[in-house]
Amino acid sequence: MPTLILLGLVIALVVIFVLKTIVLIPQGEAAVIERLGSYTRTISGGIGILIPFIDRVRERVDTRERVVSFPPQAVITQDNLTVAIDTVVTFQINDPARAIYGVDNYIVGVEQISVATLRDVVGGMTLEETLTSRDVINRRLRGELDAATTKWGLRISRVELKAIDPPPSIQQSMEMQMKADREKRAMILTAEGRRESDIRTAEGEKQARILAAEGEKHAAILKAEADRQAAILRAEGARAAKFLEAQGEARAIEQINTAIKHSEVTPELLAYQYLEKLPKMAEGQASTMWMIPSQFGDSLEQFARALAKKDDDGVFRYEPVKVEKDSTEGSVPEEWFEASANPEIAAAVAAANAVAQKPVDEPEPTAAPAQNETPAVSFDLGQLHKELDS
């Protein structure tokens, strides 16, 4: 029985010795080893061998990058306004031995140094500069903290101002100021928009009036040109009509004369026709008295002497002149009743219609005539006269 107890004690001592000899340090941590109370070495990420009861682990230190948020600190600005600023510091322990032996509590040290540096930096700025100079404050805080904590084995990687809270009264004033600024900008933008709208509207009206004036100008020019060409065509048509009318009257008289010659009218017939027309001459409303001249017989005798031949018995007898009949006499030219238009005139009218129907904005295919120059009519008047004469 005593042997078993002794054996158990030996096994227990061996287990304790093994536990005291081997130490396991996980990745991201470091262990500060002391031998008989003095710093010996630092073990990180692995298995370490210690001398039992002589070496010991002073403290395990987290070597990963850490983010520490500090509570808001009251800071007075240059214009004597108190603001509450809370900061976030990101740091990493590079030398665990210095972090253990160089400072009692490195987190408290970082906090106090950041507060002192923050008061120094913000104290030289106004409230508006503080609110708009976060990057400047962050750089200065990081530089001061990094310089102060290097001897502690720390590396300050980043410092950020999480919030800057001015007093409530200042916040209300700032909100009112921001509201006034926004309303001012809104009014300015509204005025600018109204101004731009008025300018665009005026420009549009100007362009519309210019286009309307250009359209009226082109329309007046086209109308004047159309009236001019129409007047020319009407004048030419009236002249041709008068010519045709005169030619028709001449041919009608010629036909009547030919018919009279062929009918062999005698003086007796002419005297009879003359006497027959006398009553009709007296039928006028203004004719209240009609007298036959006394020398009427003498007039008939003179007429008979001019047109008749005296026989042996002393009587004047009319002998009509023999007139040879011409095959062309009494015929009417077919072109008198021709209703088709001249092709050249039809082409000129079609060209005028094309010019009148063309849009105003379409460019002219040829150069415009001079100001006092009159475009020529697009048909030959001499040819037209020749056709009418034929």
Automatic annotation (TrEMBL):
UniProtKB keywords: Hydrolase, Membrane, Protease, Transmembrane, Transmembrane helix
Q: Which GO MF term does the entry hold, naming one?
A: peptidase activity
Q: Domain Band, which positions?
A: 20-178
Read off the PANTHER family from this record: STOMATIN-LIKE PROTEIN 2, MITOCHONDRIAL
| Family per similarity comment | Belongs to the band 7/mec-2 family.
SMART domains per UniProt: PHB (SM00244)
Q: Where does the protein end up? A: Membrane
List the coiled-coil residues. none
One GO BP annotation is: proteolysis
The segments labelled Disordered in the record are 356-378
Pfam families linked: Band_7
Lineage of source species:
Bacteria, Bacillati, Actinomycetota, Actinomycetes, Mycobacteriales
For this entry, the protein name equals: Regulator of protease activity HflC (Stomatin/prohibitin superfamily)
Q: How does it sit in the membrane?
A: Single-pass membrane protein
